[in-house]
Amino acid sequence: MKYDYLIVGAGLYGAVFAREMTDRGKKCLVIEKRDHIAGNIYTEEVDGIYVHRYGAHIFHTSDKNIWEYVNRYAEFNQYINSPVAVYGDELYNLPFNMNTFSKMWGIRTPAQAKEIIEKQIEEAGITEPANLEEQAISLVGTDVYEKLIKGYTRKQWGRECTELPAFIIKRLPLRFTYDNNYFNDRYQGIPMNGYTDMVEKMLDGIEVRLNTDYFSVRGEIEADKTVYTGPIDEYFGYQLGHLQYRSLRFETEELDCDNYQGNAVVNYTSADVPYTRIIEHKHFNFGKQPVTVITREYSSEWTPGEEPYYPVNDRRNTDLYHQYQLLAEKEPDLIFGGRLGQYQYFDMDKVIASALNCVALQK
Ligand code: FAD
Ligand code: UDP
Questions:
Q1: β partners of residue 28
Q2: Ligand 2 near 172 CB (within 6 A)
Q3: Residue pLDDT, tens place only, 167-222
């Protein structure tokens, strides 16, 4: 059997690419080293609760086409992400908004909040923010930075905020209204039947081989083109050196109570709590089950053999990634896609957009 496309990875990128090319009459084979489809957006049902096995996933986008695209494969609920942050015995709303500022400083109006923040920015004396710390302080001032950003970011990335790129903190909205919506996007929600069901529908009628690592079947499968959604440096045998990633450890337990923390996502922002956040999965789907499932998320530096989750897009790694891209360009029948293949801090909507763009370039 000869395929038009061998697609490595049954995550979102692989599934969208396979769906689109199959619909264009191409013969696709998807191989996946894990024992399930859906990659990191995989959800599994536990006592009626959709558990996000690889971390909390909230779909959000401002792109109407992408929203319509995912709605072809899943019905989405009206979930709006509104995490809270625990710092010591203090609790704050996220993202940084009037609820946060009111609690932090005992003030009520946007003008009062802006005055405090502007004073703190002035005292810090930053004109052109060059890293995450400077960017954060010049957006929200030192109090919010010290309590809600510094410790969390250090745990999440294992690096000082001064060593991290500014763009990471710009993912979070800053607003002077009493609005706890974590995203500014026009469209938001969670698939009512879980993400796995959505990806299953995308892959309908497409040949998928699970428990199949590309590196153990390399050369055995005949295909005109290969789409690879694993880490780009691994594909090339790390010949130019390792790219850095952050890995995660998930500690999941089912509890005999109906509501553990009253919110889907609670961040622990101080450095002395070892995990970054606790997820209570049922709240993503407004679950009414008598039990609950929670997951503590721990972040660590990736080492070979672990799952890479986050690319570390600092200068060193970005330069190295560009060198790997030059190697990739020498292989015209090879496409790198997705968060690991493209070494980008992509959200789901960006992964879909990237896959659709790539599809549009195919003959
Ligand atoms: P993946 O899902 O990683 O899929 C790649 C697949 O390839 C995997 O299944 C892997 O097993 C397989 N693979 C790798 N190497 C091989 C090999 N050698 N052989 C065979 N198979 C292989 N995005 C949002 O939009 N909203 C969120 O709230 C959100 N939260 C997130 C929370 C966490 C903790 C993380 C880590 C990510 C989050 N994301 C979120 C991002 C989202 O997970 C990604 O955008 C998306 O899942 C990436 O899809 P992908 O197909 O590129 O990668
Ligand atoms: N962040 C923070 N405190 C928080 C939440 C986020 O400092 O309570 C910072 C942190 O650096 C994090 C970044 O904002 O890596 C982006 O947060 P996001 O929630 O988008 O991260 P993700 O869900 O992708 O892990």
A1: 5
A2: yes
A3: 999 999 999 999 999 999 999 999 999 999 999 999 999 999 999 999 999 999 99
